[in-house]
Amino acid sequence: xxxxxxxxxxxxxxxxxxxxxxxxxxxxxxxxxxxxxxxxxxxxxxxxxxxxxxxxxxxxxxxxxxxxxxxxxxxxxxxxxxxxxxxxxxxxxxxxxxxxxxxxxxxxxxxxxxxxxxxxxxxxxxxxxxxxxxxxxxxxxxxxxxxxxxxxxxxxxxxxxxxxxxxxxxxxxxxxxxxxxxxxxxxxxxxxxxxxxxxxxxxxxxxxxxxxxxxxxxxxxxxxxxxxxxxxxxxxxxxxxxxxxxxxxxxxxxxxxxxxxxxxxxxxxxxxxxxxxxxxxxxxxxxxxxxxxxxxxxxxxxxxxxxxxxxxxxxxxxxxxxxxxxxxxxxxxxxxxxxx
Length: 340
Description:
The protein has helices at 25-32, 39-53, 79-85, 96-105, 124-129, 146-154, 191-201, 215-223, 240-249, 264-280, 286-291, 297-310, 315-323; strands at 17-24, 57-63, 69-72, 115-118, 139-142, 158-160, 176-182, 202-213, 236-237, 252-259, 331-338. By secondary structure, it is an alpha/beta fold. Helix 10 crosses helix 12.
């Protein structure tokens, strides 16, 4: 078995996992980069993925016991991958999980406490809590992107550009009352090392707030002609039972687990875009041709016209979503506590 490959579940350790499907390096590359628009980047990304996986394909497996879905080989994308796949990341200024976390923080009493945001982006979440719940001098932030680091420092946050598991955090035992990880954990391998480090960094009675993509929404998308949740960007598909299993193994407590409420307008807007992008991954399709044109106002209008023209074909998928809307919010949010 190649390095990183596994048939056992990384979350609960069960051997009862089954292969759902596989993707090729070419398929995965097309979900991130248009080969028509960026042929050189596309070739480099395909080559990089084959080297990362040690082969030209990656399996997606699912655990029968805790429901955790995972890429096999279970290896995360690093700096080279993201520089090729998404060299200019963008971040939302407000998300449901931000608001839900702030609601919870308001009941905890945060005066004088320390916090760290792992994968902080440009600090948009931290901006909502700075000088309201935490003093800026008590806030730390982690992000690899150089532009993000500059933005974070300009706002007065102490920044790190290294992995949470690396030696740079070793002196910080029990340094934080609160840790935030929003849409980060699904990108990470070595999950036991992550949870061991979270416990190490947390003070007694500290809390971790994590948001990941909702696995039920991912299943809907992949089963109804929308985007595949491609590795090695996302390599873990977390469930409540998966979080509970890894928490228990590390002596932490899963205290709250909630799914984002379903928002019909947001869902329809995202589904139209994502289903267009899935079609644009097909070589030789009209959608692929338009997506691959040089970026311009006309090209963006062309994408919008095709996406809207294809929208009626989404009606059966939307009917399914309407019947299952209570479980199809975008995010899964958890609060994890460290005992005294």
